[in-house]
Design goal:
Elements: H1 12-36, H2 49-67, H3 71-90, H4 97-100, H5 103-118, H6 125-130, H7 133-136
Helix pairs in contact: 1-2, 2-3, 3-5
Length: about 140
């Protein structure tokens, strides 16, 4: 099936923005768990060392992705963070993500890599900053 005839094709750029907003918001919650203990979890609050760094990157990076500011470099950094999280926390338990419970880290890593390549979409601060007056009209 040709992509140009698919009924969602006109929405592709906007759905890229929606995906960026959703994964940014979800990443903020990962950061708030580590940094502030909310929402509660087994490893909530009082993060030190690498968990503190991860919490700061997740919270700050998630916030920047949510609004679409510095989207490409932030998404690239978060992609790497999720890859490191997978190989440090999940891979040592077992080789398969379905068994080591690392599917989410793998999916996040590749979604962020895609966003780094595709950009923020039209609903973002980045898009608003680069828009010319002629393009807005």
């Amino acid at each position: 099936m040709a992509t140009s005839t698919f009924f969602l094709s006109p929405w592709a750029a906007r759905l890229l923005s929606v995906m960026r907003i959703v994964v940014g918001l979800l990443m903020i919650f990962h950061g708030t768990q580590k940094l502030f203990g909310w929402p509660p979890s087994d490893h909530a609050g009082g993060a030190t060392g690498l968990m503190l760094v991860a919490g700061i990157l997740e919270f700050g990076g998630g916030l920047l992705l949510l609004i679409g500011l510095f989207t490409r470099p932030v998404a690239f950094i978060l992609s790497g963070l999720m890859a490191v999280a997978y190989f440090m926390a999940h891979a040592p338990q077992h080789a398969l993500p379905i068994i080591n419970q690392g599917e989410l880290a793998v999916v996040y890593s590749f979604v962020y890599l895609y966003i780094a390549a595709a950009g923020p979409g039209p609903w973002s601060v980045d898009a608003a900053r680069t828009r010319t007056p002629e393009a807005v009209a």
